[in-house]
Amino acid sequence: MFTVNYHTHTARCKHASGTDRDYVQFAADHGFKTLGFADHSPQCFPGDYYSNFRMLREETEGYFSSLLALKEEFKDRIDIKIGFEAEYYPAIFRDLLNFLEPYPCDYMILGQHFLNNEYDHPQTPARGSVEYIYAYVDQVCEAMRTGYFTYLAHPDLPWCDDYSPEYFKAMEKLIACSMETKVPLEINCLGIHGSRNYPYRPFWKLVGEMSAPVVVGLDAHDQYAFTLTGVFEEAQRIIDDYNLIYTEPVLRPLHTK
Prior knowledge:
The protein is of the alpha/beta class.
């Protein structure tokens, strides 16, 4: 069973529950050896735009101080890493990096929920035309090539009513970029637990055929995610069914850039 998870949220994102300690305690009690926190990152939005599904910039200090204290307290039981799940918004990405520079950020995972820059005519790739899928792939590939992201969360998040050959052609481009940049693709356990449109098995069949590396992420939004053994079993079945290359991600600390 998996003992490493780098995709853990906190209540600061406004759609997760439980205390930081709850997550650490449950993970340690259920055999996890490494626990990475990757809450939805703050962003440096222009003007008065407000995002209701991520931590605020003024919460960043408390995020690190809380988790660093728990890292020290639980050091003999579990290794805690501190990072973020971040969208790549080209116009403000450098602002985000500058904002995070003072903090000991171990890694960022790429979780692209919106196209463009969210605040500027946003488009969600969760369901749309093939053109939206291509736009998602282009933005994600640009992000992976920056060298800042450790892995790509839920790469199969976008979906179409009709999974046409064009969908798979676009995803071939995404998978090839993953291999080129050595940014693994995540089998997302929240999608399994929530019976979402992902993990989309035909996508993972293509990943297996192209031999791209994969990781497994809990995408934990409460401490009980660490008890859901069934999602790990399904993730393992996907790996086995398509001969996927499972790997543990190589972290890319921001302060070494």
